[in-house]
Structure formats: structure tokens, C-alpha cells
Amino acid sequence: MSEKIERIKCLIIGSGPAGYTAAIYAARADMKPVMYTGMEPGGQLTTTTEVDNFPGYPEGIDGPTMMLQLQSQAERFGTEVRMGMVTSVEFSEQHGGIHKAVVDNETTIEAETVIISTGATAKYLGLPSEQRLRGGGVSACAVCDGFFYKGQEVAIVGGGDTAAEEGTYLANICKKVTMLVRKGEMRASKAMQHRVENTPNLEVKYFTEIDEVLGEQVVEGIRMVNNQTGEKEEIEVTGLFIAIGHKPNTDIFKGQLDMDDTGYIITKGKSTKTNKPGVFASGDVQDKEYRQAVTAAGTGCMAALDAERYLASVESKEEVEA
Length: 322
Ligand code: NDP
Known about the structure:
Bound molecules: NADPH dihydro-nicotinamide-adenine-dinucleotide phosphate
Helix content: 10-25%
Oligomer: single chain
Distance between the termini: 33 Å
Low-confidence stretches: none
């Protein structure tokens, strides 16, 4: 049961690039945002090493440093960044209504606006050798890390649109890409499958799974297993990309916000508005397609602007068009 109650203008849930960018804009707009960081302060980027594709860092920057800089920037304008996990929410249906969020099962925050930026978590296979070599050649983001394997041989696991897109992306950079699909067919759209088939240095192995990732400190190869025959085969690769889907971190919002079948929050048109007035969603929690730090930051900015306009409309007692 929660004991303490606090009333604020803007609550930001989650501390990745979307959350911090929302915080920078909301703080500069004098909304005095309070951010709860969640279990992984800084979000997915804190598990990456070098970030080379965020504009403004010509030499690249490591993920954790970038997130600390974003935090300082948000705090400079008055964002209050707090460690803590939002454990339940109760969103109002009313324009101008008050939304409730319980933090760590003990503090209740009453907020006029809420910006959700809880992100998504990449799925992994769960093999101990895969987990040990995360950051040492095992990655869940080809667009982020593919460049480090330029001219080398890599493998990718998955048969959906992400694997197909990332596989062809990697084939442009790398000498050879081996794609492991556990069934006898890919789940990806026909158009994406054609792209895969027409990429000469991309070899698809059907009915194939990873038995073990080889290497002590860094990936040196993989042992594959054919799940029909049990036959095993080893190949040398320096990178292994896992593209078997993401899980959006939306469990606590289920039943309150409109979501798609996978649990991504649905936002209205080009805005960050959810189906609840005053509740906005930004970053990977509402985007299964682009999933980049810079696109997350962009939607974080949009969420703060949407929240600011919403508050203005409440103050002037004008009903904005939903
Ligand atoms: P999907 O869930 O569509 O596909 C996941 C793939 O990974 C499937 O081939 C699945 O195999 C495989 N897989 C799952 N678990 C394992 C495992 N443990 N071992 C081996 N293989 C596994 O995820 P995506 O990320 O590809 O796509 C998510 C959504 O985003 C989809 O709706 C997709 O269409 C969309 N998307 C669209 C894009 C675009 O339009 N440009 C780009 C990227 C994504 P199986 O089929 O056997 O279950």
C-alpha cells in the first residue's frame, strides 16, 4: 500500500534517450518534470559500448557516458531524476484529470501529465555462452554495431522482418553473413525474403539453431545444430547478431492504454498521444520499426511538446481534439 502522496505537473517514466530528451524539453518549459529511472538507469544504451551514429559526436561516444551527459543536461534545467520503479498506474479518462502512479509500492505520484518512455528489451536466446559474450561480439542491434565487423564474417539469428532487414544491412558491410532460421521458412514479408534471396553474400540456413557461441573473451565462431537431423557444424565468425524480436516494457500499462498485439503502445497519428488525455508515449515503447537512439530522442521531444500544449489547453479550459 502506498503512503506518501506528491502532486506534480509532469511525470516521466524511464530514462533512455526518449525520457531524457522529454525531460530537457519539459524542464525548459517550466513543467518541473520528475523522472523515475526504472531498473536500468540510462536504458538500453548503457549495455552498448561505442555509439557512433548519434549526431554531434564525430569521434563516437560510449553508451553509458552519453546517458550520463543526457542526465546532466536534463538536471541542468531542473529535472528531478530519481531512482525508482513505477509499479502501478491509474490513468484518468478526463481531459485535465489527475493520473496516479505508485513508485516502489510506497509513494503515490499524482501527475497532470505522464510521459512514458520505458523502452523495449531485446530478446536473447538465453544460452550461457551468448550471455557471456554480450558486448564481446554478441549484439542485438546490427545498425548500432554492424560497422565494427566491416569486411568480416558474421552470423545472424532470426527469420522475421528485423532479421531480414539487419541481415541485408550487414551483408553490405561484411564479407559474409550466415542467417540461421529455426523453421523451414522465414516469417519475414515476401518482399524482405526476396531481398535476402538476392543478396549473394548472405547464406540462409533453415532448420538451424545455435548450439553454442564459441570464444572466451570475444566471439570466434558458432556451433550450429540442424534441429531436424541433429547434425552439428562449426563456422568461424567474429560477430553474432540476435534478431528474434523485442519485448516492449508495458506490462504495468496493460488494460489502461491501447496497445498492439505485441504490447507496443499505440500513439495517435504523428503525435505521441495515447488514448488517455495527458498521457504520452515516446521512444521504443511505441516504435517497433526504427528503434534508434536518435529517433527515440526525437519522439521524446515531441512528447514534451505535446504535454506542454495539453497543459496549456487544460489551463485555458479548451477541449483539444483527441
Ligand atoms: P518477429 O517476432 O516477427 O520474428 C522473430 C523471428 O525470430 C522469427 O523468425 C522467430 O522464429 C525467430 N525466433 C524467435 N525466438 C527464437 C529463438 N529462441 N531461436 C531462434 N529463432 C527465434 O520479430 P521482428 O523483430 O522480426 O519483427 C517484429 C515486428 O516488427 C514484426 O511485426 C515486423 O513485421 C515488424 N518490423 C517491420 C519492419 C519493416 O517493416 N521495415 C522492420 C522490422 C520489424 P519463428 O518464425 O520460428 O517463430
